[in-house]
Amino acid sequence: MTTTAEHTVPDATPIVLEKTVVRSRKTPITLSVVAVLSIVLFVIFRRGGDTTFTFAGGRVAPSLPQVVLPTTLTCVILTVVLVLMAAASWWILARRTKVPLWYSSVFAFLFVVAFLTWAAGANSRPLPITSLLLGAVSLSVPYIFGALGGVLSERSGVVNIAIEGQLLAGAFLAAMVASMTGSMWLGLVAALVAGVLVSFILAAFAIKYYVDQVIVGVVINVLVLGLTNFLYSQVLAKDPEFLNNPPLLPAIPIPGLSAIPVIGPVLFDQSIIVYLMYIAVVAVYVGLFHTRWGLRLRSVGEHPQAADTVGINVTGTRFWNVSLAGAIVGLGGAYFTLGSVGSFSEDMTGGQGYIALAAVIFGRWDPVRATLAALLFGFASNLQYTLAAVGSPVPSEFLLMLPYVVTILAVAGFVGYVRGPAASGKPYIKS
Amino acid sequence: MSQEQDGAQASVDESALQQAGDADVALETGAQVPPEQQEPNRWNEALRQIMGGSVVISILAVVLALIVGAILIAVTDPGVQQAAGYFFSRPSDTFEAIWNVVSGAYTSLFQGSIYNFGRPTFASGIRPFMDTLTYATPLIVAGLGVGLGFRTGMFNIGGQGQMLIAAAFCGWVGWSFDLPPVIHLVVAVAAGVVGGALWAGIAGVLKARTGAHEVIVTIMLNWIAFYLISYLLRTPGALQAHGSNNPKSPAILPNAILPQILGPQYQLHFGFIIAIAATIFVWWLLERSSLGFKFRAVGENPHAARVAGISVNSAIIWSMVIGGGLVGLAGVDQVLGTTTGGFGSAIDAGIGFDAITVALLGRSRPLGTFIAGVLFGAFKAGGFLMQAANSIPIDIVLVVQSLIVLFIAAPPLVRAIFRLPKPGPRPPRKQKPATPAPVAEEVAAR
Amino acid sequence: MKLELRGITKRFGSLTANDHISLTVEPGEIHCILGENGAGKSTLMNVLYGLLEADEGEILLDDVEQRFDGPGDAMKAGIGMVHQHFMLIPVFTVAENVMLGHESTGFAGFLNQNQARARVRDISSRFGFDVDPDALIEDLPVGVQQRVEIIKALSRDAKVLVFDEPTAVLTPQETDELMSIMKQLRDAGTAIVFITHKLREVREVADRITVMRLGKVVGEASPSASNAELASLMVGRSVELTVQKQPAKPGEPALTVKGLTVVDPIGQLVVNNVDFEVHAGEVLAIAGVQGNGQTELTEAILGLQPRVKGSIALDGKELTGLNVRKVLDAGVGFIPEDRNEDGLVAEFSIAENLMLDRADGAPFAKGGSLQLRFRNTFATEKVREFDVRAQSIDTPVGTLSGGNQQKVVLARELSRELRLLVAAQPTRGLDVGSIEFVHKRVIEARDSGIPVVVVSTELDEVDALADRIAVMYRGGIVGIVPGGTDRETLGIMMAGEQPETPAPQGDPRGEAA
């Protein structure tokens, strides 16, 4: 045997096959494209006059003085900086393998400043920064709740196209229950329940009957739309005073924090549902990556069989986490009726669930990144209202398109590398 | 030395045995299976169950959905609620109220979609059915387009966007040019088909070149198309009607309008003939053409297709392009057939999403899709009468439609409800999934 | 801990996978379960591990009867398992994988990562593993991943450790290391169940051997039993694989591969600077342990690999850079390694599969329209010629047996005008009759003057078919030797070494000289 053994063990070094280093040129390309776009917009189609930014205060926070910038000069300077930064990103790439995230973030921020200066230039009305941001946060609330639910559901292995339906169901039931009972708290609970109920359908068909999760999601959205429309016309609209007149959640300023200029009124003078959102973001992030619950949730979404062999109940874990995700999204739905509008109307979510879905993907299935993506999308949505108000030439539809365009670029691999949970979308069938 | 031989001998036996053992496997199971999958696989069984649905399941799914619809109608009806208030003193009142409202609703549904016995002549009595066919026309072509994608393993949720772009293309040709009859119509229809094909082609190209998941891309393209068309419709010089402030397009010129085929008393237009032709075309494409053969091969097993020299990428792109063209026809039907006076950004009327349910109900087969399209057309036509005559919101139709699809997708559920036996071990070949199994695989995109 | 199985029976429909299996494993012993694929070993272990429920029989640990509702129960009872396909989550760290399912947590379920890391380090150092607890699984080589599996089992204080075909994915060197780990564990008092079908491994480590065949225990043996004894127990009958063939009459070089290099998606050189020639009318067998680049080599010839350097020329025509369609048109026939995945569309009928690679153009299509009549005539003819047993040509191939499926592939590939045949593992998983049939056809192709490349990991097949043998190891060709070279030499080469007496550089026509 010994001689044979000698022959079969030729060398002791482990296999190290040669590897090639892949440098991603996507970030520098993207930055360069944006830089070129800046030259076109801000230099070639430059606008004269001044741009005025105002920083209004809130109920507690003081106002800041307004800032007046010469439109052309500011835009040109910022464009030069952007072009230099884009050029430098190639240099960074040559020396390292990756352009750091903070670099791209600074670049994006400067571009936004340049864009705002340009769009609100030529002596249009002053651009109210506080209300721009406040509106952005408000619009983001359902996106963020939706995205968190999407992250949880997909991380546990169930694709959640039904965010839209969960939001709509949450909005409907919250309005009805809060209106009937006069209690905002019961309204919030009703929204949770509505989201969970929709999740049950998703979970039952996707997990128990192995129906394609995309189909279930799409169909659920149609189902909930039909159901809420039907019940709205058949029930709610017949007695709106009693059934569709929920109390609005009041804004509660947080002492101290709400007195910070700009940030105070934007973030800390909000209704309870927004504070719940902050808690939800932190809880989902911490829970997902630092607790037993999160470890198990991610394990069933990545490799259910492995989870099964260490004694984790895959089906149960998926079922309850999809339900939990539904509860979170449902809460986001309550924001429509209890947080902003004050009554339910047909199809009032209007496709915002799909923006939340986009945020999940653009945020790479990470709760914090997804939240940031949702905020970005909310900012884009609100920017169009604000720009329309100050009389900017930018057509609102193009800003509204932004989340969708960005998401397509993301899934096509132009913006970062997107990899979802490995087992997301696949039913787990024990052999 | 003898040890060495011994070792060599061992390896000989090993490989000899390995083959012999494999032979045993093959004898036992009749197929090559990796060892860990030797046990009859529950995955396969479940798949077989899901795919083993049949015409019976489809019919039962429709019945079940109608029952749920009936419950909804009954529960929300004020008359029923009132009678239920004294249910224990006079339960018959409750049942009578339920019967009245449900039978009334479904009678309207029938009279609004098939035949109205209240009319004096057959010609006017059959009018509801002609309405049904009119509503069915765009559903059929869009369903064919979505179904074609399914057969190639592509999940096209972008019907809305493809219809909107198609509407813009064919509408623009329809009102901007003054062409002779027939030619104008042909050019306008072709423009619409091209529009839909282009928009779907984006998703196809992105999927083929970058692996971007078509579900996500088509959803996003729906919204991009919506905002793009909204912008163009409110921009003078683009799609907005001249001298108008509304976000609405000009009216279509008469030469580009799809003619009514059964005279002015029925709405049914030439689009229905196109839908029949499209059904035959798709059947030929899938069952009799070389291209369709490749589509199906890619849809069933892209790996084997690739090894056999079939370009998976070009199959993906072409199936999306052709499918998008068919969905575009639905936009054409809307603009040149039913809403000829100019359209807004809601011209798709949800048909893009209905098409998914139509294709699923029709199991992605051309004839099945045609029948499913007529059924859903009937729901639409009847739904309007139901809304008018019985004041039951037409949205109940959406509920029934989506329930049908859910039930169809989960035959085990339907079987459990009706206590049907499980299907046999080998389902006949015809009973195949409405959707491609590999779709879900990378839904999360790459 | 002593493990005892008594009368375990597991049926799947009409198939009895385990028929009253009884065996005992004592602490501090390595008990081998030897049997061929399909003998029921994995089923037995899945029953033991709670993944399957036995129809009859009982499991005892230290003479106490156990009831396992799932793997969790089995683990709690002290049974650990190293799965054939690792049950590790690629995007988790080693520590996370090890703690999954029995996490140590603090307040509100917060994970105690430090404790998990310490546990990994502790077990690693006890057995001399070098495993970084914070490394991501997907970054680790296969051998190290297996160690993580072992750590995972040990961290749950497994007293009975099951290794399910652990060497299938390992290199010979990693296999030897695993053997020594197993001995170490045994000496530490663990009861080890080692499932394998490789005699060498059994003889090296086993203290006791139980042989299974067709779901039954067919005998026990001691490690001193000879190979012949073990083999006859395992197979139960002798199998001879011989092909009647005349000596090859090689012609001019037809396929010339020069400096071929293939890079895989993660940047590894899976085929590294390979040169060889295949002459018209000869069979070149490519031997080697699975996963040494053979698959990628054949895929590169067919144009399936995206990143290829070097030259592949067929009759002077360059094939590199062509797409699959053009390679097929150049006259390459290809029998893929995994016929279910790459060779056939299971839902398609036999007739459709027979035209799978000829959907374009005459004679199967004219003007974009399929010629069904031609297809059916063709299929009927081929089904007869290749003896495909099926109800009709419209039967879906997914319902056929493996042998008949392979005949369909063979019929399709051999019915084209071929200038080269590439057959990868052409008889894997086939019954004896089908193997003979396939071999006969391959030799017929050779005798008609077609150059043939056969990739096989089975030395018997190599022996039966090859006129020359190229042995691959880690992406390179170790050497090319004449057919009929003794197994010992081939074995040495498969481990990457040159044999002591340099083999003649097998020029097919060199024999005359």
The residue fraction in helices of chain A comes out at 55-70%
Strands across the major sheet of chain A, in which order? 2-1-3
CATH class call of the largest domain in chain C = Alpha Beta
> Looking at the structure, what is the overall shape of chain C?
globular
Question: Uncertain regions of chain A: pLDDT < 50 for 5+ in a row?
Answer: 1-21
Order of helices and strands of chain A: HHEEHHEHHHHHEHEHHHHHHH
Largest sheet features of chain A: 3 strands, mixed
Radius of gyration of chain C: 26 Å
Total number of helical segments of chain C? 17
The chain pair with the largest interface is:
B-C, 58 and 89 residues
Oligomer: heterotrimer
Head-to-tail CA distance between termini of chain C: 66 Å
Query: Pairing-aware structural class of the strands and helices of chain A?
Result: mainly alpha
What is the rounded distance between the termini of chain A? 40 Å
Largest sheet of chain C: 6 strands, mixed
The total of beta strands of chain A comes to 5
Overall mean pLDDT of chain A: 86
Spatial order of the strands forming the largest sheet of chain C: 6-7-8-3-9-10
Number of helices of chain A: 17
CATH topology of the largest domain in chain C: Rossmann fold
Describe this structure in words.
The complex is a heterotrimer of chains A (431), B (446) and C (513). Helices cover 67% and strands 5% of the residues of chain A. Chain A is built from 17 helices and five strands. Chain A has helices spanning 2-8, 26-44, 71-95, 101-119, 129-155, 163-181, 184-208, 213-234, 240-243, 263-267, 272-290, 292-302, 304-309, 314-341, 352-362, 367-390, 396-411; strands at residues 50-55, 64-70, 127-128, 251-253, 269-271. In chain A, strands 2-1-3 form a three-stranded mixed β-sheet. In chain A, helix 2 packs parallel to helix 4 (101-119), helix 6 (163-181) crosses helix 14 and helix 7 runs antiparallel to helix 14. The radius of gyration of chain A is 25 Å and the shape is globular. With 446 residues, chain B is mainly α. Chain B is 69% helix and 0% strand. Chain B has helices at 2-29, 42-51, 55-76, 78-85, 91-113, 122-125, 127-151, 159-176, 183-210, 214-233, 271-288, 290-300, 302-307, 312-338, 351-361, 366-390, 395-409, 411-418. The radius of gyration of chain B is 27 Å and the shape is globular. Chain C has 513 residues and is α/β, with parallel strands linked by helices. Chain C folds into two domains: 3-235, Rossmann fold (3-Layer(aba) Sandwich), CATH 3.40.50.300; 253-512, P-loop containing nucleotide triphosphate hydrolases (Rossmann fold). Chain C is built from 17 helices and 22 strands. Chain C has helices at 41-48, 71-76, 94-99, 113-127, 142-155, 172-187, 199-205, 227-235, 294-302, 324-329, 339-343, 350-354, 372-385, 402-414, 432-447, 459-465, 487-494, and strands at 3-12, 15-25, 30-35, 56-61, 64-66, 79-82, 160-164, 191-196, 208-213, 216-221, 253-263, 269-279, 283-287, 308-314, 317-318, 332-335, 365-366, 369-370, 420-424, 452-455, 468-473, 476-482. In chain C, helix 4 packs across helix 5 (142-155) and helix 14 (402-414) packs parallel to helix 15. Classes of the chains: A mainly alpha (431), B mainly alpha (446), C alpha/beta (513).
